[in-house]
UniProtKB/TrEMBL annotation:
It comes from Fictibacillus terranigra. It catalyses: 4-amino-2-methyl-5-(phosphooxymethyl)pyrimidine + ATP = 4-amino-2-methyl-5-(diphosphooxymethyl)pyrimidine + ADP; 4-amino-5-hydroxymethyl-2-methylpyrimidine + ATP = 4-amino-2-methyl-5-(phosphooxymethyl)pyrimidine + ADP + H(+). It comes from the Bacteria. One of its GO terms (molecular function) is hydroxymethylpyrimidine kinase activity. Pathway: Cofactor biosynthesis; thiamine diphosphate biosynthesis; 4-amino-2-methyl-5-diphosphomethylpyrimidine from 5-amino-1-(5-phospho-D-ribosyl)imidazole: step 2/3; Cofactor biosynthesis; thiamine diphosphate biosynthesis; 4-amino-2-methyl-5-diphosphomethylpyrimidine from 5-amino-1-(5-phospho-D-ribosyl)imidazole: step 3/3. The lineage of its organism: Bacteria, Bacillati, Bacillota, Bacilli, Bacillales. Residues 14-259 form the Pyridoxamine kinase/Phosphomethylpyrimidine kinase domain. It is an enzyme of class 2 (transferase). CDD domains: HMPP_kinase. This is Hydroxymethylpyrimidine/phosphomethylpyrimidine kinase. It holds the Pfam family Phos_pyr_kin.
Amino acid sequence: MLNTPKALTIAGSDSGGGAGIQADLKTFQELGAYGMSVITAITAQNTLGVQGIHPVPVEMVMKQLKSIEDDLRPEALKTGMLFSAEIIEAVAAHLRKHGWKNVVVDPVMIAKGGADLLQEDAVEALKKHLIPLATILTPNIPEAERLTGKSICSRKGREDAAKLLHELGARMIVIKGGHLTLDKAPVDLFYDGEHMHELQGRRVDTPQTHGTGCTFAAAIAAELALGKTPLHAVHTAKTFIQEAISHPLHIGSGHGPTNHWAYRRNQA
Ligand SMILES: Nc1ncnc2c1ncn2[C@@H]1O[C@H](COP(=O)(O)OP(=O)(O)O)[C@@H](O)[C@H]1O
Ligand SMILES: Cc1ncc(COP(=O)(O)O)c(N)n1
């Protein structure tokens, strides 16, 4: 019987469709995984910013997880905007109890427009409860700084941060390079617990980068669901996001979304 790979996103909804649950499901679909979602918060959001956040009650987050556990167990999953310590602890307890594997943790904190997507006191919960369950943790540079308490100004700083995050319990880490200064190529650093690998990229000079981190982490989860190795998964995710940023859709008048179709079109 055909075994359809299933991937799950546990994240916030972005009404504008460029980030969060919507970006994740589009990415799963493009890479050939059946997409499922557990919504942790509803955001009113467009390319100009976040106009409102309504967290989903923790009981309802748990119900969604149980519905999936009872019938549709995923081969891989990613977490994005989790908003509160309460939601993080409940999600982590579920993952631990049911032994869900291939967990990609994108430690979403602040939207590109500046809105807080994670409450201040939730950072400790992320470190204590969720990071130890991460197969692959994908912080951007400000998130890696916040999680390690150390500022990152060099390649060595990124390597040290990756090692510290490994000590916190993440099996593998990608420190993303999107926030490097504009003259630098957005090279991401992948630490597999033993070796550092570079994921090479070309910087595209564009404001249309809404949802890049979500899309990248979702692509990793889709590849893991398909049975690819972590190294293969992060390389494919890097190509996927490079294509998505390089062929912008020109939607909205602010930070527009990336193009989730571009990767598959270019493979065809
Ligand atoms: N302007 C850009 N050109 C090319 N790649 C980019 C650009 N901005 C981000 N990326 C890539 O997109 C992915 C997501 O990174 P980043 O934007 O840092 O994440 P986040 O959305 O969490 O801040 C990384 O692979 C990064 O290197
Ligand atoms: C629901 C949700 N999740 C994640 C992000 C982060 O995406 P970005 O950093 O590109 O704003 C977002 N804006 N909204």
